[in-house]
Each structure stands twice: as structure tokens, then as C-alpha cells.
Amino acid sequence: MGMYTAHVDPNDLMKRFGVDIDFWEQADLLMRAEKYPEPEVKEMLAWLGREFGRIEAKPVVMEAQVRMYLALRDLAKEREYDAVCVKCLPGASCCSHDVLPRHRASQRPLGSSRSKGVDGVRL
After folding, report:
1. Rounded to an integer, what distance in angstroms lies between the CA atom of residue 45 and that of residue 91?
2. Residue 104: is it exposed, middle or buried by C-beta count within 10 angstroms (0-12/13-18/19+)?
3. How confident is the model over 16-46, as pLDDT tens digits?
4. Contacts of residue 48, Cβ cutoff 8 Å, sequence gap at least 6
């Protein structure tokens, strides 16, 4: 496409705000998301139901999104990030249920996602 969404010059960001950017691969996040135990995922789903009432999404989609949230949350804590940005492109799988192996409708390999990765910011 030749387009970049939310592109930033890391040197300019550091110079202006003193903020550093860190990168990691989406595949690493996906592997991490798969490792969360079912009770922890169910607890988060129950909380979402109590807090927001009816959620109009398939249970398999909600479970996968909760797993991705937990993975991002824990990665941010481990790396002491103040903010996290997920870079997505239209039409690309972007940390969604269709790239988690247990929840994938298609049988494409894990590495076939067109999403390039995730950025973390340490302030």
C-alpha cells in the first residue's frame, strides 16, 4: 500500500518529549495470549458481563479478545510501559480472534497475519 498508519519518527519523539518506543512481534503476543488459564479468562468475561450488561459478540470472539487484553496488560506491566499502541491496517488481522490458533475459523498458519506488530511506549 505504501501507507503507514500512526507513523512517528522515534528520534523526533525522543527529542520533543523524552519518550522512547519499543517494539515486539504480534506472534509473541498471540503465543502469550494462548497460555492464559480458562478460569482467568472466564473471570474477566464474567466481569465484563456484570459491568457492561449484554455484549453482542460471539463467545469465542469475546474469549479471544480477553486473552489478547490480558497478554497486552501483562506485557505492559512487565516492560513498565505508560502506553501501548497496536498498529493495524484495514483488512489485516489485528490482534483479533481469527489469528488465535484455538479460535481461528480458517486454517492459515499463525505467521500469515499481515499485521506488522505492536508498539509500546515507555515515558
Report:
1. 27
2. middle
3. 988 888 888 888 888 999 999 999 999 999 9
4. 55, 62, 66
3-state class of 98 per DSSP?
helix
Exposure string over 38-74, b if 16+ CB within 10 A, otherwise e? eeebeebbeeeeeeeeeeeeeeeebbbbbbbbbbbee
Residue with cell string 512487565:
78
**What pTM was estimated for this model as a whole?**
0.66
Q: How far is CA 56 from CA 94, 108, 115, in A?
A: 20, 26, 25
Number of H helices, E strands in the chain: 4, 3
